[in-house]
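Side project, low priority. Logging it here so it doesn't get lost.
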Amino acid sequence: MWGAILLPGYALRESLLPRGAFLSGGTYYGDTLFFTPPIYPALAIGMILGRLLVRLIPAARTALEPELGEDTKITSGLKKFAKSGELALVVALPLCLCGAMSFWVTTPTRIEIRPIFSTTASSYDWSSVREIETGCTRDRTVNYHFFLDLADGIRTERIDLMQNDPWSFAAAYPSIQSALEGQSYGFNNIGFVGALCATYPRRSWREMLTQPPTHRQSSSTP
């Protein structure tokens, strides 16, 4: 149910991406609004469907009859879940769609960032990349990071190209290399090289996180 509620948001985000985009993702605050609020109506809907399914299975109904009680009590419980789910959905859906509209996207010529609650996107040339910072953090799994610090003299932004899908980042890496070719930027890999989680077995991934993108890798296979 949580995934089903998110589908309209994904469709909306895809419709807003410019032509030629080769990598995109949500902003930090945008993804918080996108993924978190739908949990509450999804739980309510799941509880309703769970109770209905139990009533349709004779063996389960017989086993749980003392707990389920009379049909009137079940109906009353379902109505309560329905009311809470409806209220949660009314609140969650607009927040979810608002979060879906906050994203960053890269094209061969530009980087666009649409902040949370903004109706327009900020656009940067690839020459606006001032520094690239790589790193990794360990939670339940190891998360890898490839930050771009952007500045055009008026605005500054920071995005993580590996935040949403590191595999899509690896596939798009040659396009990132081409876009940065000839550009001047700093490169800082201390967050990866000096971290305990820097143990990814693929050689190409280690090279992507330890060498500047315009450094010619010995292996081009992600």
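Brief comment: The chain has two domains: 1-111, 121-222.
Revisit when time allows.
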